[in-house]
Prior knowledge:
Blueprint: H1 7-15, E1 32-35, E2 41-44, H2 61-64, H3 68-87, H4 91-110, H5 118-144, H6 154-163, H7 166-179, H8 183-193, H9 202-206, H10 227-232, H11 247-265, H12 268-277, H13 279-289, H14 301-318, E3 336-341, H15 347-354, H16 358-364, E4 378-383, H17 387-392, E5 408-412, H18 419-425, H19 430-437, E6 449-453, E7 477-479, H20 486-493, H21 497-504, E8 516-518, E9 530-533, H22 540-546, H23 551-557, E10 571-574
Antiparallel strand pairs: 1-2, 3-4, 5-6, 7-8, 9-10
Amino acid sequence: MIRHLPLIGLVLLIGCAAPRTLEPGARTAPPTETADIAGNTVAVEEPTDPDLTLDHVAPADSLAMKDPASLLADARMRYDAALTALERSDTTAARAAVDEVLELLVLLSDDQKHAATPAQADLLRKLGPLVDRIQARRRAAAEIRGSIPRVLNRRVTQQINLFLKDRSLNILKTAYQRSGRYTPMIREELSARGMPPELQWLPIVESGFKPRAFSWASAAGMWQFIYDTGKRYGLQRSGWVDDRFDPHKATPAALAYLGDLYTMFDDWFLAMAAYNCGEYRVLREINRTGNRDYWKMRLPRETRNYVPKFLAVLHIIENPEKYGVELPDTHDPYLFEEVRIDKSVALQHVADLLAMPQDDLKALNTDIRYGVTPPTGFSLRVPLGAGSTLLGSLDELPESNFKPPPEVRRYRVRRGDTLGHIAVRFRTSVSRLRSMNRIRGSLIRVGQLLRVPGRNYGGQQWAGQTASYGTPRDAATHTVRRGDSLTRIARYYGTSVVALKLANGLRGDLIHPGQVLRLSGNGSGTSGAVTYNIRSGDTLARIARAFKVTLAALMRANPDVQARRLQIGQRIVIPG
């Protein structure tokens, strides 16, 4: 049994964990050489470790008064805290916890009345490997901090010129203005992970900093996660909520994914390329050619432009005067607090209770899919200072009986349908439709039942607002209500905006409450046909596409109509 652990024993045991000598007053190790991302040799000063030196530890009087058993229990608790902090990559907290363990062990070793126990010796032996892990994690963080090279080649210059065009520049400015809501939070997350701060601007390329962005490839949210990747990094999805739409949940997941990709490829350009098209696509290209230079790789067109777009954004934001750009002031970050709600309530009712616009409450809770909190409980974000008001009135909020639509439903293939048309209609991708239905090619047949996403994620449809029109989906007309849009109406009735415009002679998107719209493709009578008046610029092919019928079917329904001699005002029949 070890009878006594003098202070020098602690120094020797812990000192062996770090590749340097612990001396009183020591703060910095000699610089070492490493390589930056561009391959240049640079001097890197090893991180200071004041928390791991023992000369400055001053035992607190309150600790000194405790008995050895309590001190040992405290030391074990702090050791567990160090492990927990290291698991979440918080090396600062881990080092602080190790320092506290050392302080407690120093107290035990300095108490001459009590012999050290095997438990104390075991805890001391565990500290060495733990310090090794902390040091290794810190060195890895130091390596990952290298800034992203500001390449300015032909491809980047081309993207800069595209951004400087009027429409694209306005989009960039709007995204930059919107970024202020989230960049402080993103910078904090980047700093905690030791990642380049420039990555805070990646959402401009991904989504324009739109939390509810949804792409043709079923990527969702500000960081554009597809479902499988989001699930891999802890983002949950249910009929009620989708974490991919919550910037505060998606940002840590996105940065964890980017960090893993950087660890895999040891190159930020390759990491970003893999974030865009998938790590396996980049790995296949590397294995095929042996080339690890992003600029020489044969990748999908979108990925070939992805890094140049990001670099173009960096150049413009960091040097707006150089490019004659006047960037707007950014929006302020959202200030909020969270209130736990253990029943299903409509956001509209919460907004009314707090006397705030419902849209403002939605903006704080972008992960809620249908404007209703889940019945299993939810931490609702409300403006800072409004939490106590909500807590005091929770019992007054009526419980919602809203039920989300199924995640998957059935669709029967109609004449003229293609996988592409169906994918667009349900805001998904052809590849996902193939996967859901185990289809290898593109061949589908009329009457075939396909599995399709139950709801599309692109639109925000909110319960208690216009989630249900209360009108049969096979109705011939629809009366416009407040909050309606052509997109929402078309989606509800399973048609298209173009078809609605054609059926109602609309040139723009403007509609007004009380207006009665004719629903394309939904007719009366046994034939299921409707009539349409020819307008300027119409062709039979265009009309067929708009009403989702084949050109041949349209011509069979109108045998007296000559395709090359259409007249404005001429009435034709659209087959059902």
